[in-house]
């Protein structure tokens, strides 16, 4: 899999859904790594086709895959060794994997909702907050950018925001 391959796949899926959805809204919803795919596809639609997706929901996002890789728990032990950045972080870039949510949200104009659990042990909530600040700073209409955090007492972590019974109302 490649970043451009993922994006191409999502655009093909978008075309398929759009052809069958009538006037229904189409929302891109990305979780974790998928947030980079969602913003890539939305940006490509906007810049290359002049089409704006109806909305984007980013669940447990990050700014770039490099920053995410520097924070995931599996890399904790390796971060202290010399060469971590070169061997791990730079190798992601050499594979043309960037997933620049931070750059993508700067050019988007569709409604953007960022969801993050305070007890996310994979991608810390600070990454979602940082992405929110970037988007809010870039959006002309600040009311289109929302950030919702879920208290750690709910125990939603990285994978269970979608199980929160209040989620449909929050998204709506």
TrEMBL record:
Q: Which GO terms describe its biological process?
A: monoacylglycerol catabolic process; phosphatidylserine catabolic process
Give GO terms: molecular function aspect only: monoacylglycerol lipase activity; phosphatidylcholine lysophospholipase activity
- Ranges for domain Serine aminopeptidase S33 come to 6-71
Naming one, the record's GO cellular component terms include: endoplasmic reticulum membrane
InterPro entries documented for this protein: AB_hydrolase_fold, Hydrolase_4
| Protein name as catalogued | ABD12 lipase
According to its UniProt entry, this protein's organism is Asarcornis scutulata
């Amino acid at each position: 899999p490649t970043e451009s391959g993922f994006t191409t796949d999502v655009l093909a899926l978008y075309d398929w859904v759009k052809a069958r959805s009538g006037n229904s809204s189409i929302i891109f919803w990305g979780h974790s790594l998928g947030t980079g795919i969602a913003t890539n596809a939305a940006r490509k639609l906007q810049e290359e086709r002049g089409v704006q997706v109806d909305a984007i929901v980013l669940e447990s996002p990050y700014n770039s895959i490099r920053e995410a890789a520097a924070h995931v728990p599996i890399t904790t032990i390796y971060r202290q060794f010399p060469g971590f950045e070169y061997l791990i972080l730079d190798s992601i870039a050499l594979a043309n994997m960037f997933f620049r949510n931070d750059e993508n949200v700067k050019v988007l104009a569709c409604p953007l909702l960022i969801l993050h659990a305070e007890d996310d042990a994979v991608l810390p909530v600070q990454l979602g907050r940082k992405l929110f600040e970037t988007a809010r700073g870039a959006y002309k209409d600040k009311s289109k950018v929302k950030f919702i955090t879920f208290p750690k007492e709910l125990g939603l972590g990285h994978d269970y925001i979608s199980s929160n019974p209040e989620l449909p109302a929050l998204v709506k």
